[in-house]
Design a protein that fits this description.
single chain, 122 residues, 2 helices, extended
Length: 122
């Protein structure tokens, strides 16, 4: 079985660090749709780790913003599921808290952009 990635946690700014040479988790450890079987070689970040980090981000948002209103801006299409999960965690934390966090969710759609010679989006 593959070695585990190096995980560093240093307060709120801590994150998961995956070494370049780490081969990932073996596919036998997971269930996944059959139509992905020829395309996947390994799993780098299992769904549970992503959901745990998303919940912790929601907790950090609740701690940092207190009773302030927030606007969640979701970038379509790729960010939808992450945004939906984050909003659900914030709602659950708000329901189970003495503080109330008013939240509005808006969506934007962006075009892919090319780098011009100055390195800024066109």
């Amino acid at each position: 079985m593959a070695d585990r990635p190096v995980i560093k946690a240093e307060g709120k700014s801590g994150g998961i660090v995956i070494k370049d040479e780490w081969p990932g988790y073996h596919l036998d450890l997971f269930t996944y749709p059959e139509h992905y079987s020829g395309d996947l070689e390994c799993i780098y970040l299992p769904h549970g780790i992503i959901m745990d980090r998303t919940e912790r981000l929601a907790r950090n948002i609740m701690e940092d913003l207190g009773d302030h209103d927030i606007v969640v801006l979701c970038v379509l299409k790729g960010g939808y599921q992450f945004c939906a999960d984050l909003v659900e965690f914030i709602k659950a934390l708000s329901r189970n808290s003495t503080r109330s966090l008013l939240m509005r969710v808006d969506f934007i759609r962006v075009k892919s952009y090319l780098q011009n010679s100055a390195g800024s989006p066109e």
